[in-house]
Batch of 2 targets.
Target 1
Amino acid sequence: MPIINASQFITELDRSENLCDQLALALRQKIQQGILEAGTRLPATRALANELEVSRTTTQLAYDQLSAEGYIVSRRGCGTFIADMAATIASLSPKPASGNYSGLSAYGQSLLKTDFYPYFDTVAKPEKDSDFDFRCGLPDANLFPHKQWLKAQRKILRSTNLNHMHFLQAQGVAELRKNLVRHLKRNRGLHCREEQILVTSGFQQNLQIMMRILCEKRDQILTEYPGYPVVETMANAEGLQVSKVEVDESGISVSDLEKKSNSNARLLYVTPSHQYPLGVVLPVERRRALIAWANKRNTFILEDDYDGEFRYAGAPIEALMSLDDNERVVFMGSFSKTMSVGIRLGFMVLPESLVEAAAKARWCMGGFNQVIDQLTMAALIADGTYDKHVKRCKLIYSKRRKELIGALSKSLKCSYKITGDQAGLHLTIWIPGLNKTKMLKLIAMTETAGLRISALVNRQFSGAVSE
Ligand SMILES: Cc1ncc(COP(=O)(O)O)c(C=O)c1O
């Protein structure tokens, strides 16, 4: 058989990447595709190196690799050839995936069926530096306390206590749980024990744990409408039945909740501190009514303390869980808004009866959170840095809020009403007579002007970051 030349199996090399790997890959693919047949003689390593303008070591290493894999054989004094077994090896090699695997579990299949847009693989940041991004759920990343975080982390890493590195407790680092107990008592009026706290990677994991330990397929989960769309997506992925309960100007409607809930109702998701997205703070009568409903139904309430730390007028409102004396409420906290979504750190305060199952479920989801980050957060809470940081953020956000409301009053020529400006990172502007067509036009105009907003069209979100 004639000797082939390099151009028959490789057309170009990217000189910024590993040349040996590229060469081996090109040859392997041509053999697997049957383009280079058994017995074909390959150029000598020196000739190939000259032809490709690479070092001889590169060609030698590529041949060695393919020889070790069984694709080629070298015969002393004769040269290097495609091995007789190459076709067999190629047929045993995994084929490139085409479409999804057909043997997926019911869960795997429901993941494929569920629409994950726009959370999955997208970056929730302004496209241009000059953009003004007013979309729901975006804290200012520049406010992250870099210096304090670094200082605390350095101190932890310098400590000689290596036990931290062997930490295996799914419930979370004791220091963090202890400090959270004090923090919650002081700031959220919530009295709980360290044993009730489970450290997690944030709200999404909290929700997944609860769905996993409390729901069977097709059970009902009730959520606010309009509400946090992540809940619906995740519940769909778990095969649950999602029912949406109307939110009026005082928050979630208890009469609609009575109407929508069925005998399979297992969970109710609410954002009582600052309703997402309307911004209503749930009044105490409704809080009591929700707890009475949950007691009657034997259902659990998932209290997402969304924006709970950012209350501008007066003291923070007590957590819904603090009104519950029948183990019906699960309090869910996250550091995504007060610190950064990137640290993936959150927690739950659980009724005692759910602690063991929830901690075991957490362990099944990757064990536990990164220990150094947990210790860092614990240190920042313990020495008051976290409280100071939240206070500073609150001042900055409240100033921006005032400026925004002032600018709106000067420039918005139509009649409008603002709600939800007492707490949190967003407010809602109601413009009467804005139908869907006009709203879509408005969104397009804001985008052209380098401004990004989340809009509610017929109670459906459009353009929300965490939509
Ligand atoms: C309503 C609501 N709850 C909770 C969170 C926090 O989610 P996580 O802790 O998964 O980042 C967000 C984040 O955008 C949110 O919008």
Target 2
Amino acid sequence: MSSTNPASGLPATSTTKNNAIWVRETRFGRWFLSTQTWYRYVLSQAVIDFKTLLGERVPTQGHILDAGCGQGLAFGLLEQHFQPATITGIDIDAEQVKKAVSAASQLTTPALAVHTNASASNLTAGSFDLILCHQLLHHTSQQQETLQEFYRLLRPGGILLVGESCRSFINSAPVRLLFRHPEMAQKDARGYIDLVRTNGFVFSETDIQTSRPWWSRRCLGMAQKLGIGLNNTEPTEILIVATKPH
Ligand SMILES: C[S@@+](CC[C@H](N)C(=O)[O-])C[C@H]1O[C@@H](n2cnc3c(N)ncnc32)[C@H](O)[C@@H]1O
């Protein structure tokens, strides 16, 4: 099953970067998100790392929500690694949703893609076992509302996977030049941990992974190879496996 929600009434795009619900990614950014570099080194790696963090908690035959699914690149990975009963993708960008509808139709798992705002969807409360939120939060100023919505959508005991790029990376010169994000919405790793925890989710230190992958380092890691910036250990990426308590 594949469908969009044409009656969502969402803003086509935002005109300001300050406190915007949504700032449309640049043309370059939208292209980059469709590359093998993104798919292989960022998205696939995140799903594999989430699976490792989950350990024996990996749900099978669950109902999965991919929040901020973009063009649905994660659908196949979710199908492969989690064998879900259903996959639902949501995104605020109608153009991306069209591509996600097509990606959903390629799966053997029943899947659909819906045009809606992750912070105020019309999806049914408690209807998901697992939510993947990969690289969405730094794109919205409504982070608090988005976490509350995830809490509403998960069943008790359901799992939220948050994968984010931290402020130090998003505010770096190349990223600012090539991509577009709402101002002031990005957090450091501790900020994302606090955001998820203060919205009712539980997790321990072993449910968190921070890293500085090569693609997020100055000059793609060349600075480190040349001995420049060796002391910088601030994480650029964070993964959190959080649970909605029973
Ligand atoms: C960096 S992309 C990540 C796409 C996908 N999760 C991936 O990892 O390939 C961020 C996505 O979040 C979407 N997005 C931003 N704000 C949103 C919101 N409030 N509700 C739903 N989607 C949103 C954007 O349209 C974009 O497709």
